[in-house]
Amino acid sequence: MEGQITQISARPRAATAFLTLRDPSADVSLTLTCSSTLLRNMDPPLTDGSRVVVHGKPSFYVGRGTLSLRVDEIRAVGVGELLARIERLRQLLRAEGLFDPARKREPPFLPNRIGLVTGRASAAEHDVLSNARLRWPAVRFAVRNVAVQGSTAVPQILDALDELDRDPDVDVIVLARGGGSVEDLLAFSDEALCRAVSACSTPVVSAIGHEPDSPLLDHVADVRCSTPTGAGKRVVPDVAEETQRIHQFRDRARRALQGWVERERRWLDTVRSRPALADPIGPLERRAEQIDVLRERSRRAVLAEVSAEQHRLAATRSRLTALGPAATLTRGYAIVQRMSEHGPSVVRSVDDAGPGTRLRVRVSDGSVYAVVSPDREESGESQIAEEPRSAS
């Protein structure tokens, strides 16, 4: 069986030593018993957190319901084997797409709160907090102190990561630890931790060890910082730089506005210098004079036309008067009309007015009515008996 040693209990004169073998990725442990001589003869000596492979015989205690393992061989897992296992896990996670850059999310420019998972009172915690507060004094942190190496590191980191991921105020999570050996950083290459970081809905920043250190967490996290100091500078902007940038933008905006105002002012000066705006009343006065002249010409033309038409009308009236029957009647002539049921008709011949015919004789100042007498004189003219005169 393989696991991490978490507890070693070996009394100096006791023949039996007791150990606890723990799964680094799960909360599962098993009690080991071995001879004290086997434990003392190990080189290098076993310590808490050592990764080992043990061989033994299982024993089940019915009274207590516990399972233990009587060990007859303990072998430490070498660095080369650990690196080979990490490399195999690296290839597996890469094949599953956990290292794909398309999966990585950009942390917010100015997070509301930063979650920090690190060791208690560690240099990594101090570096992240101090550098972040130097850049942005108002930054807020939610710090979770956990074991960063040993058998309890992975379960504690997973619990802290889950708690911060569920906090709605946390916008980014930083996992920070100082440098160390491959065994010291082994927890940050754990498969369960890598998958948990990949499943987080909150962007995760990895700041493990120094520049040469490269645990698997660096490839799964959204952002990788070479040191905790770099993480403190990465998660928040620099207030001095942002203030300077604001001043630069303000100066650019002021210069742009001044340039626009100057261009518009020159344009207004150009427009104002045009004749239409330089002397707006002069053209109106000249147009008014032209309108007065045209109006007077129009009035004279209309009067002349009216006078000419009046003269033509008077001449036409005179000709009509001269040619009309009224003028002829004033010279002594009369118009004789025969009255019948069909209306009056002009008498043009003696034959048109037989005896008894009622006539209307129209003169210049009215009409008289007469009846043709049956008696005729030798001259052939009809005798007309006058009826009462009627002016019409």
Automatic annotation (TrEMBL):
This protein's UniProt keywords: Cytoplasm, Exonuclease, Hydrolase, Nuclease
Protein encoded by which gene: xseA
Location of the Exonuclease VII large subunit C-terminal domain: 98-314
Reactions catalysed, as given in the entry: Exonucleolytic cleavage in either 5'- to 3'- or 3'- to 5'-direction to yield nucleoside 5'-phosphates
Membership in a protein family: Belongs to the XseA family.
Enzyme class at the top of the EC tree: hydrolase
A GO term, aspect molecular function: exodeoxyribonuclease VII activity
Protein name: Exodeoxyribonuclease 7 large subunit
Function recorded in the entry: Bidirectionally degrades single-stranded DNA into large acid-insoluble oligonucleotides, which are then degraded further into small acid-soluble oligonucleotides.
Domain OB-fold nucleic acid binding positions: 2-75
EC numbers, comma separated: 3.1.11.6
Native source species: Halopolyspora algeriensis
NCBIfam families linked: xseA
InterPro entries listed in its UniProt record: Exonuc_VII_L, Exonuc_VII_lsu_C, OB-fold_nuc-bd_dom
